[in-house]
Amino acid sequence: MENLLRRITFDKDVLCGKPVVRGLRISVEMILDLLAKGTSWREILEDYPELEADDIQAALLYAHHLVAGETIFERVMA
Q1: Domain ranges in the chain?
Q2: Residue 58 predicted with pLDDT over 90
Q3: C-alpha of 41 from chain center
Q4: Spatial distance between the Cα atoms of 56 and 34, rounded to a whole number of angstroms
Q5: 8 or 78, which is more confident?
Q6: How far apart are CA 22 and CA 71, in angstroms?
Q7: Domain 2-67 has CATH 1.10.10.10
Q8: How many CA atoms lie within 13 A of 60 on its CB side?
Q9: Which neighbouring-strand residues pair with 20?
Q10: pLDDT, tens digit, 9 for 90 and up, residues 8-50
């Protein structure tokens, strides 16, 4: 799993430091957005040939780590 997370990189000169895949200008956010909209892995890989299946898996793993470490606050109902 750690090897997958190494695919996610940060560089202030690439997309203002957002998490991206392997230094490419393909952000984790964009991959997650495409998946949330129902785009298949195959379609993403066809549209972005520089991506690999492990890159998509790494984006999902990165998102999981962010959510898993999230602090839950009591929510007040309006």
Answers
A1: 2-67
A2: yes
A3: 13
A4: 11
A5: 8
A6: 28
A7: yes
A8: 10
A9: 9, 27
A10: 999 999 999 999 999 999 999 999 999 999 999 999 999 999 9
